[in-house]
């Protein structure tokens, strides 16, 4: 079994893009890769949808050769459906298959999938074991600390997950009931990593928003890698910043012109990949971070999230570039 995505990489610390629905699509992953992400994972994909050949789900599996190493993440609560979808997933030839045992949103967890399965650890272990045995590619798991603060915690079942044969384990430092509130607790992630009986790579996830936090998380908890999620939205540069920090290099200034150019490229790639209407709607999640910190940017932000055609967005981006041409995105109000 080839574990190279987790054990052989050029960076001092493996830094990956955490999967996010309607965010980590092919165009955005491409940008993150170019700016230094070592590892990519697709948006999570429902096993049932793959088995129905649903067009949107099949599109989520698409990636370019440049995006290797990449994993396809699947979710579901039905073992038979999950096993059936393996054939479809493996035909796409990813480097590994990731099981989502961590999504906390109601439409997923409420059906016993994602972090909903953390209420039934034996079922989670049984399904994971079956998938590892059936798959011809390495299988990994992404999960949370537990279902709630007073339920079984990751430190209680991490070894059992390892015993299923998974190639790596990614842990988000919150429980299911926390959703995305509060602060990620890395203490338990560190306990799993430093358990002498754990030998698979452990990746930490949650609240990594700066290169300094990435350095601290690696140093204090000893994880094999870091997954960055929400902080990467509209900010693919965070991977470059982390890589530079781990190499001991100073942070590079990012001009407004570069922000506009990368945002425009992202927008155009998204339109080509998903069509103008869908791309314009989904890009609205990225604009806030692309231009975060710019003085008196609110009127432009409101215009970006209300403009409905690519031509008008191009014109608007030209205006932003011209208006802020002498500023950088590090200049705050």
Give descriptors for this structure.
333 residues; alpha/beta; TIM Barrel; Non-ribosomal Peptide Synthetase Peptidyl Carrier Protein, Chain A; 9 strands; disordered C terminus
How would you describe what is shown here?
This protein has 333 residues and is α/β, with parallel strands linked by helices. It has two domains: 4-246, TIM Barrel (Alpha-Beta Barrel); 256-323, Putative flavin oxidoreducatase, domain 2 (Non-ribosomal Peptide Synthetase Peptidyl Carrier Protein, Chain A, Orthogonal Bundle). 44% of the residues lie in helices and 12% in strands. It has helices spanning 4-7, 26-34, 47-51, 55-60, 79-91, 106-109, 121-134, 154-163, 187-193, 211-221, 237-246, 256-274, 276-283, 287-290, 298-304, 310-323, and strands spanning 14-17, 40-41, 45-46, 70-75, 96-101, 139-144, 168-172, 202-205, 225-228. Strands 1, 2, 3, 4, 5, 6, 7, 8 and 9 form a nine-stranded parallel β-sheet that branches. The longest helix has 19 residues, at 256-274. It is globular, with a radius of gyration of 20 Å. Residues 328-333 have low confidence and may be disordered.
């Amino acid at each position: 079994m080839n574990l190279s995505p987790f054990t052989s990489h050029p960076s001092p610390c493996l830094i990956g893009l955490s999967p996010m629905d309607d965010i980590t699509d092919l165009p955005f992953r491409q940008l993150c890769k170019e700016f230094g992400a070592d590892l990519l994972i697709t948006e999570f994909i429902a096993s049932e949808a793959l088995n129905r050949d649903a067009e949107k789900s099949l599109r989520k599996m698409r990636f370019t050769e440049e995006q290797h190493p990449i994993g396809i993440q699947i979710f579901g609560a039905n073992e038979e459906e999950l096993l059936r979808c393996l054939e479809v997933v493996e035909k796409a030839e990813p480097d590994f298959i990731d099981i989502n045992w961590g999504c906390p949103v109601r439409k997923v967890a409420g059906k016993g999938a994602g972090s909903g399965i953390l209420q039934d650890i034996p079922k989670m272990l049984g399904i994971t074991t079956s998938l590892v045995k059936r798959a011809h590619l390495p299988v990994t798991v992404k999960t949370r600390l537990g279902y709630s603060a007073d339920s079984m915690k990751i430190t209680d079942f991490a070894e059992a997950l390892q015993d299923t044969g998974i190639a790596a384990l990614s842990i988000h430092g919150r429980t299911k009931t926390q959703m995305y509130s509060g602060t990620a607790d890395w203490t338990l992630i560190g306990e799993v990593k430093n358990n002498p009986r754990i030998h698979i790579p452990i990746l930490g996830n949650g609240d990594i928003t700066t290169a300094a936090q990435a350095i601290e998380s690696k140093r204090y908890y000893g994880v094999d890698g870091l997954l960055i999620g929400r902080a990467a939205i509209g900010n693919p540069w965070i991977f470059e910043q982390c890589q530079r920090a781990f190499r001991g290099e100073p942070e590079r200034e990012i001009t407004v012109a570069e922000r506009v150019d990368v945002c425009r490229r992202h927008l155009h790639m998204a339109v080509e990949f998903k069509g103008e209407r869908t791309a314009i709607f989904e890009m609205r999640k990225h604009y806030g971070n692309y231009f975060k910190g710019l003085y008196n940017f609110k009127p432009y932000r409101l215009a970006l999230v209300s403009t409905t055609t690519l031509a008008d967005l191009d014109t608007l981006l030209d205006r932003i570039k011209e208006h802020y041409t002498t500023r950088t995105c590090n200049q705050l109000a």
